[in-house]
TrEMBL record:
It comes from the Eukaryota. One of its GO terms (biological process) is carbohydrate metabolic process. Coiled coil: none annotated. The keyword Secreted does not apply. It holds the Pfam family Acetyltransf_1. Residues 20-344 form the Glycoside hydrolase family 3 N-terminal domain. This is Glycoside hydrolase family 3 protein. It comes from Acrodontium crateriforme. The lineage of its organism: Eukaryota, Fungi, Dikarya, Ascomycota, Pezizomycotina.
Length: 940
């Protein structure tokens, strides 16, 4: 059957729009035989590409049979061209097709990089390609072209060839050429690089690339660029988010900026672009599969991937059709993608090839040479990073009858490994067999993942090999007994940087062994060998681990090569890939987070959740001022105050990771950072730093800015740096000092509370002492009293005061002003605001709600600087306020917005207020500085 006419013209068969749409999908299914669902997709929806997973494949023979049946179904249904049949066969721990007899195990990508041989990498890729091609597969979902720049948080691990972009590039091209030599089409992944992803949240969170495009271009994009120049057939664009300056992408594969601009235009890629699986929960949850399909095609993807859900696959097909019918996708756009897809298929398949796979006959002929290649590759990859005390081979340090202890972590076996199958079979039989390998008697319990390693170690020595597992419970008495008993210890780790219990356990055992003494009381270190069986980064830079070996995966073949190294059967020649031999790569990555303006409609619910999370997770007393706050508590909506608030958020889930508020008080020229807080589970990732820098940049642009202040009296959630308890004050002061604030010049302010107002009475003699103040006190309501009151408070230039008073004067039903007037001339010398829980002001004072009782508030005392009896006047104003609050039936009185610290002690207490029954609710440190001298501090 023909598929294309001339080079530029499509065969008329493709005028059938349903045929065209089918070619632009790749789908998977559940089952080891052709299911009714996948048959319907091929027959009725003209599905053009299929991705097989480990759940579909049981053996090489079954794989070949299944693929042939799928192709026959397509042929019988009148497909003009064969199906693309794709699998992931990266080797190491990621193999879709496993068969102990016919499919060989080869090292992971990083393991091959450790051999130092591009030729060997090419040969392994070619051999891998030949094996899967024999089963009818024609598209390799590889090579992996990611540069590993974030090793601590990175689950890709050994699937990449390392952290050096040129090295990743050269091995990636070698793999690609090997696959092509075997007749497969190739697909690079995971564009624009998964090597620096941050995994920061729930299943609904999308991993995020926080590097800028400029940074990516100088590093992570190099392997993709070079592979494209060398003839890469297809590219998978990841479903990750991208968040950096000028770039906010929810899912890369749905972004025209990523697919069309970056991949097509900048990198000049002309091959097939395949989307990441649109069934990912974050995408289907936030966008929907139907809409996501239209977005992917319009972004520039040629083939949309849906891994297994028949419901989602139907939604995608329906969304695609609707997109075409509604002219959201043009027919010309479809023809471009169809041409690319047909060109790819013409390179790797034909009906003659698809309906006549070589199968087991070819695999049988390949088996001997491929077995030799597997052994050679593994033996060449094992890396002895250090052996300071020459513990290798084990015969150097152990007598024949000595006991050897093997300590292994409890980890899941690799999905495509004999250990996984043995474990499943063992569980199904209910066998109680414990693990201890020796030539004779007793047994000890252990775990089964590394059973073959223990057996291999035991086969080659007459002494016992004791084997037990370790967990997050640390070193137990059983471990200590075995350590004392053994003459040497081997500790296995598997991604200790992401499973920190392994790191702690290994260091603890190492310490125990360093403190051993012989019978004569002399110190005698017990030999310890640490083997990293996945990521080599576990202890690459830790010189206290004297003997350190890396295998790069824990397949049976890898561990067989490890045993040979331990017993000296060959000299290991592997070396650490990339730059980790030369420099420390485990430092915490600093990131520049995308900071967005707070959008109340979009972010209010998420902010309420963030507030709750921060409040609940803090140590006692720290951030408790947030307990009753809501998103509304930060929005004052005052025309005389310009407020601008910022968030760092997950654009897919809408969750907020951080929040910062700024207020510019025009009357005083003061720019205020009123709050800044970060999701407790995402601290120390530079989110707060990014928010702070954005806040300062925004305030610097305010017309008339004179000074900056940390802490706001309107709203009064944070009056300054929350000092909390214990080391929290020191930590927060240090954090803000590092950002440029002179915390040495801070001043203590606080909010206070008086409880049990129903039984409260003023101290004896206080009322009489007020008479000596030479002032008359009264309580007024409403705007008609505004003139003299507002003139009075101008004597104090603190931010927020005028706004508080204006709010109170405009709300006479819920607020009043207590005035102190000089007896001789009636001039106002002191004022304070009185308000209740129905007032607008109460919304900005979370402490009003915290008590759970009827509460009243006293706010913003202002005493004229010309008054000598400052403390007496202050006491008088607050005393009268408390009387009013008690008369209203309130049982709690909140004194908020702080007050002049003229007569406060260093700890924020004030004797005159303590005597009135107040205790400190929250302590803060208010910090101010001149805006003209501010220096921006870059993230470090």
């Amino acid at each position: 059957m023909s598929s294309m006419g001339s080079r530029d013209e499509l065969d008329p068969v493709w005028d059938d729009m349903n045929r065209t749409l089918g070619q632009l999908f790749m789908m998977g299914f559940e089952g080891t035989t052709v299911t009714p669902q996948i048959r319907k997709l091929i027959q009725e929806h003209h599905l053009g590409s299929i991705l097989l997973s480990a759940k579909n494949l049981q053996s090489a023979e079954q794989c070949a049979k299944l693929v042939l049946e799928l192709q026959q179904c397509a042929y019988d249904s009148g497909h003009p061209v064969p199906l693309l049949i794709a699998i992931d066969q990266e080797n190491g721990g990621v193999n879709t097709l496993f068969d102990e007899i016919y499919i060989r195990q080869y090292p992971s990508a990083m393991g091959l990089a450790a051999t130092g041989s591009r030729d060997l990498a090419f040969e392994v890729a070619k051999a891998t390609g030949e094996e899967i091609a024999a089963c009818g597969v024609n598209l390799m979902m590889g090579p992996c072209l990611d540069v590993l720049t974030n090793v601590r948080n990175q689950p890709l691990g050994v699937r990449t060839t390392g952290d050096d972009p040129q090295e990743v590039s050269s091995y990636g091209v070698a793999f690609m050429k090997g696959y092509k030599e075997a007749g497969l089409a190739t697909m690079g992944k995971h564009f624009p690089s998964y090597g620096s992803l941050e995994f920061l949240g729930s299943a609904l969170d999308v991993p995020t690339i926080t590097e800028s495009l400029e940074s990516l271009s100088l590093n992570a994009l190099i392997p993709f660029r070079n592979a494209i120049q060398e003839g890469l057939d297809a590219m998978m664009v990841g479903g990750c988010a991208m968040s950096s300056a000028g770039l906010n992408v929810m899912h890369a594969c749905l972004s025209e900026q990523v697919v069309h601009d970056l991949l097509r235009n900048d990198l000049k890629f002309r091959g097939v672009v395949i989307s990441d699986c649109l069934e990912m929960e974050a995408l289907s949850h936030n966008i929907g599969v139907g809409g996501g399909t239209v977005m992917a095609i319009n972004a520039g993807c040629d083939i949309v991937l849906l891994c297994r859900s028949y419901v989602h696959q139907q939604q995608a097909l329906e969304g695609f059709r609707l997109g075409v019918e509604n002219a959201m996708i043009t027919k010309e756009r479809l023809r471009v993608s169809l041409k690319r897809t047909l060109t790819l298929k013409s390179k790797c398949t034909s009906w003659d090839k698809a309906l006549n796979p070589p199968g087991i006959d070819l695999l049988s002929r390949l088996q001997p040479s491929h077995t030799q290649l597997s052994t050679k590759a593994y033996n060449s990859s094992i890396t002895v990073v250090r052996d300071k005390n020459r513990l290798l081979p084990l015969a150097n340090i152990m007598e024949p009858e000595d006991e050897l202890l093997l300590l292994t972590p409890l980890v899941k076996p690799l999905a495509a490994s004999a250990a996984a199958r043995a474990l499943t079979e063992h569980a199904s039989t209910g066998s109680p067999e414990p693990l201890m390998w020796e030539r004779s008697s007793s047994v000890m319990s252990g775990e089964r993942v590394f059973r073959e390693l223990g057996r291999s170690l035991a086969r080659q020595r007459s002494g016992r090999v004791l084997h037990t597992s370790y967990t997050a419970n640390g070193v137990r008495p059983q471990h200590e007994n075995l350590i004392n008993r053994a003459s040497a210890i081997i500790i296995v780790t598997a991604d200790a940087n992401r499973n920190l219990y392994q790191h702690g356990f290994t260091k603890h055992v190492s310490m125990i062994c360093n403190m051993q003494y012989n019978s004569g009381g002399e110190k005698r270190e017990k030999p310890v060998i640490v083997v990293a069986v996945s990521s080599p980064y576990d202890f690459a830079m830790d010189q206290t681990i004297g003997t350190y070996i890396c295998t790069y995966d824990f397949t049976e073949t890898a561990l067989n090569s490890l045993v040979k190294v331990l017993y000296g059967e060959f000299a290991p020649a592997g070396s650490l890939p990339g730059t980790i031999s030369q420099s420390q790569k485990l430092s915490q990555s600093k990131q520049h987070w995308l900071v967005e303006a707070f959008n109340e409609e979009r972010d209010a619910n998420a902010l309420d959740i963030l507030i709750k999370s921060v409040s609940e997770s803090s140590s006692p007393g720290v951030h408790s001022e947030l307990h009753s706050a809501t998103s509304h508590s930060f929005l004052i909506r005052n025309p005389e105050v310009h407020e601008a608030h910022f968030v760092v958020r997950n654009s897919s889930t809408q969750a907020l990771y951080g929040f910062c508020t700024t207020y510019f008080f025009k009357a005083t020229g003061t720019g205020v950072i009123g709050s800044i807080f970060v999701d407790p589970s995402r601290r120390k990732l530079s989110i707060g730093h990014s928010l702070h820098n954005r806040a300062i940049r925004t305030l610097l642009q305010s017309d008339g800015i004179k000074r900056f202040q940390l802490g706001s009296r309107l709203p009064s959630i944070f009056l300054g740096i929350p000092t909390g308890h214990g080391g929290e004050r020191k930590r927060l002061r240090s954090w803000f000092a590092n950002l440029g604030w002179n915390t040495a010049l801070s001043r203590v302010v606080c909010s206070m509370v008086a409880r049990n107002m129903s039984t409260w009475a003023p101290p004896d003699g206080m009322a009489k002492s007020l008479q000596s103040a030479g002032a008359d006190f009264d309580l007024v309501y409403g705007w008609e009293y505004a003139g003299p009151v507002l003139d009075h408070i101008k004597t104090n230039n603190r931010q927020g005061l005028a706004e508080v008073y204006k709010m109170a004067l405009a709300d006479p039903s819920a607020c009043g002003i207590i005035r102190a007037k000089r007896a001789e001339d009636g001039a106002i010398v002191g004022t304070v605001v009185l308000y209740n829980m129905q007032s607008q002001m109460a919304e900005f004072v979370p402490g009003m709600k915290d008590s759970g009782e009827l509460a009243g508030g006293i706010s913003s005392p202002v005493i004229s600087p010309s008054v000598g009896e400052y403390s007496t006047l202050l006491q008088g104003l607050i005393l009268l306020g408390m009387r009013q609050i008690k008369q209203q039936g309130c049982n709690v009185c909140i004194l908020d917005y702080g007050f002049s610290p003229r007569q406060m002690d260093g700890d924020g207490s004030f004797d005159g207020l303590s005597a009135l029954g107040f205790s400190t609710l929250h302590n803060f440190e208010e910090v101010s500085c001149d805006a003209a001298t501010w220096t921006m501090v870059p993230p470090s």
